Predict the 3D structure of the following.
Amino acid sequence: MQGAPSQWLPLTNCEIAELVGSNPQTVSPIIAKFCKQGLVARHRGGIEVLNPKGLQELAQDITVANLL
Amino acid sequence: MPIGALRPFSYPRRAILIEQGHPVLGVFVICQGWIKVAQRTLDGKIAGLDVLSPGELIGARELLADEPLFDLYAQTLCETRIIWVQRTSLLDLLHRRPDFALKVSQRVAQTAGFIQHRFVQMLQARLEGQIAYLLSYLHEKQAFVQIKGGDLQTIAQLRFATSDARRSEPMASLD
């Protein structure tokens, strides 16, 4: 992790998929979308959280929307 | 081996620390790095349970529950430094130091609580929300580690007991 950004998480799309019970093919476009939205940045072998508040809001909005 | 003699070991990325089905011989304390804990299901799928960061323990729940075998595996996600504490040494310390036992119990309960909270959220949200929540959750963990210092000296100040009776009263801190 030397030289990695401070908010860098050592997670590949495959590991994210395992943690949310999905597969890398499905997770990959979502991560790409998050990158476009400026929420995260992809690095080799890891992911950098650029906008944690934005991620929290997204997680909450989608949860609330599902409950309505 | 006296607990006081423990030293951290370094593991490269992708090293398997615990294999599913292996006996619970002790507890790992993460000093530096990130570790994935997951379960292989009967149909060969991998269910990721959590990603653990410095200061967190692997194997403590199984040890406290007196489970003989690990029902999960643990793999490093990056270069990682850990301390391994032998089962008998830790149990001995837990018996002798109720304050330490309470801290370990609290830490285990907190980890279980995080996992429970995350799984409830996963049931409520679509995949996009689940990923957003996961990244946010891990980011918070990371921020916590950075506040605490993020290294062996400040995170896992494991001044465990030593069997040497001539030394002062043993200390054990997970703060």
User: Anything to note?
Assistant: The radius of gyration of chain A is 13 Å.
